[in-house]
Design goal:
This protein is α/β, with parallel strands linked by helices and about 450 residues long. The protein contains 18 helices and 15 strands. The protein has an 8-stranded mixed beta sheet, sandwiched between helices. The chain is globular, with a radius of gyration of 24 Å. The structure holds adenosine monophosphate (AMP).
Length: about 450
Amino acid sequence: MKDFKSLGLAEPLLASLRQANYAAPTPIQAKVIPLVIEGSDLLAIAQTGTGKTAAFALPVLHRLAKDRRAAPHGGCRVLVLAPTRELAAQIGESFRVYGRHLGFAVATIFGGVSPRPPRQALARGVDVLVATPGRLIDHIRAGDAKLDKTEILVIDEADQMLDLGFVRDMRRIVSELPLRRQTLFFSATMPAAVSRIAAAFLNSPKRVSAAPIGTTADRISQRVIHVRGDRKRACLDELIAANNGARTLIFTRTKRGADKVAQHLATSGLRVAAIHGNKSQNQRERILKAFRNAAIDILIATDIAARGIDIDGIQHVINYELPDVPEAYVHRIGRTARAGASGHATSLCGSSERRQLREIEKLTRQTIKSEVHTEGVSETGTLTAQAAQPAPGKPAPKTKQAATGKSGSNGHWWERATPKAQRGKSAPHGRRRSARATAP
Ligand code: AMP
């Protein structure tokens, strides 16, 4: 197995890695670091949790250290673009941690905070600038940021950047950069639109990937629970009760949904908080810190707010609703099983979400183990197996519907597994009590 020294990194970086207790490079680091050191452009497919931030930050810092020169006034030597403020802040922090013995100036630019500190830092000149595209454009327009001396451009989470509609901003920013530069391009997935952008920005790139396109991390055990929409809360209560206080991240599709789930769980006395785009930067940082410090056990998030959240020890990711874009599933479940740990991902799939599930399975090239939620229990097995052998006391499915999984006028057969009389009621008392028992 390679070690960091054999990858050619300078001693001050090796010292930081010892302090960070990184024993050996991750696979993506072993591939990427030598290529960046030799000056190649790079097209990398890597998901969060693979160690990709260090994969670019370490060799970039190495290159800056090998060719020391003053940072340009009003500009930067290295520009890193990231889709969200949380991710930009984390990348900036990684550069500071890995570069702690090198004395480089690192600045971050993102919305929701005062533009004055980055403006002042830029005036002095920064070695590494980490920015979200929108706010960087504001600085360019205001004349604070001049990028014509930038030596290295890193684009992180390019697919998310496109999803968030940053493509024009990215093109505008890249047009400000010199043509002679090194460009490193990272994306968790590589749909055609991302490939096109990569082709426009990169010059004869070397290609690497940490995992095949769209595959989900091996260490995550995944399952999907088919559950009627109005039983999702009860199903969630059961999952949380069975969690034994595990650190859990719950995804919802909308901000309102995140608040509603948070309110629901809080009434059981659980330590929860929701994070989404309507929260101020201060609130978001406070909530993330509380989750990191285990002051709260359950975080409910929307896709955008959760992007780039780097918190070790998330044991369980629950998709309360399936995402509209299948790639988001890969990002979501990648929040668990980070840095070598293992984790669980459970997705609640209502009858209206079958299409999303099919697309996720197509993208990840797997059939996710499925269960059918009935009152208080989840019965393991595929839908077809369930259909062939209905649980005792449950109505037998109509053969055609069961075999095809298509709904008749009364809805899907698995939705009718719950006796009518019990519909709309909360989870069994024993379950509810145990949900409370996990509360502090
Ligand atoms: P990333 O994929 O960049 O979001 O990194 C995921 C996590 O892995 C972060 O918490 C890093 O601090 C950690 N990490 C990165 N590289 C290593 C390594 N070589 N050894 C141990 N942990 C690492």
